[in-house]
Amino acid sequence: MNTLSKTTLSVIDPQIPVEQIFNLPERVLQFGTGVLLRGLPAYYIDKANRAGIFNGRIVVVKSTATGSTDDFAKQDNLYTLHIKGIENGEAVNKSVICSAISRVLTAQQQWADLLDVAASPDLKLIISNTTEVGIQLVKEDVLSDVPTSFPGKLLAVLNHRYQTLGGKEDTGLIIIPTELIVDNGKILKDIVIELARYNNLSDAFIQWLQTANRFCNSLVDRIVPGKPDAILQEALTQEQGYIDHLNIIAEPYSLWAIEGDAELEEVLSFQLVDEGVIITPDIELYRELKLRLLNGTHTLCCAVAILSGFKTVSEAIQNDAFAHYITNLVFTEIIPAIPYPISREQAETFANKVLDRFRNPYLNHQWQSIAMQYSLKLKARVVPLLSNYYKIHNAVPLDMTLGFAAFIRFANTVKTDDNTYISTINGIDYLLADANADVLHAAWSAGGNTLTVVERILSNEALWGADLTAVKGFATEVARNVERVFKAVIY
Prior knowledge:
By secondary structure, the protein is α/β, with parallel strands linked by helices. It contains 22 helices and 15 strands.
């Protein structure tokens, strides 16, 4: 069986114009080798290149010393993206060989090559996904050695470009971070400018940095699990008929919302080939839809599902009673309470896509992983919905109430000798991996009847940013549901 490479590509997928694709200029510099970037921006760029639109390839920067780039080199940076799931109620199962990546450079060993890319007139775009902790200020010398931080590397790249090509307006780049931070583009720009001043770089360079380069806020949304395990890898090999050590799987749904204008659309021409790329002056609409209808729904349903004995999202939604609960929660409580001006039609369209994503049998999305930092997620994603619902209806949202009650039951833990907190549900131990686990444990340990414990937790403004007992009737209804979930499996 052949291994995927440039020499075998014409046989494996004769629709790809091999020489044409491999001779395209390197127009994108990407910081991060993770599967999300391969399953989202690289997917869009590959699609556009096939259509003869964007006509540019990606140089990927590997910043960490761990791991190997051998598989990329052996396969000429080709890989297969398997798109599996549910879309508009229909099963989707298709594969795409992505040829958008031209090479992978390791920052420590190939810094000079990276700087050569930075100085290329062909380069137009820098994208990144270095995790949320990657966009942080590290005060370091960015000129004498390879910087340790991503903002440091980015500053060094931009400074080298400025020194090589001069400070003309048309030598600036578009920089789009995809890390899941609100205002990620603005925050990255502020850090890079502060770091430039720390390094005593010239006022002329800082002026060019601020005016010639565009740092764009963006939001990405696509579930792309990590590297397939050995069993899945073998199944994919048999399915595709060739060996690919870089196989990845993604759901059909994809979104890359970028704050920008018509000028940006012209440069990012790959947005023409896929409706998942959205360039708009304000991405807050898409952030709210994702935060409330995808993330908020996950959070509210998480403990309800665990208490019901479900391990994965798709398993839970196959249960008719649970499916009814989640559907009612989304359409009657969350959508009306979104604290942003969104039309009912927009919200319902997005909600139906969310439910399709939940039904995806190919994604092994564990409720236990969704439960990480549970209280923080409730505060950010759900408390604004609860407050807004009560403000609009002057009534308690009953399905949200069950979600909070299940969480409080889940947070009834035993403290172990190694200072972890374990919740036992239906005879199974679950780790409460939550920054507030000690606070929740103390609330239960202080004793009292169910209502007393519930009020103790809900009134804690440090947990929620507000006193949730001020929502009239909420604590009483939550306590009633806590007693209910102690007695029996919910669904």
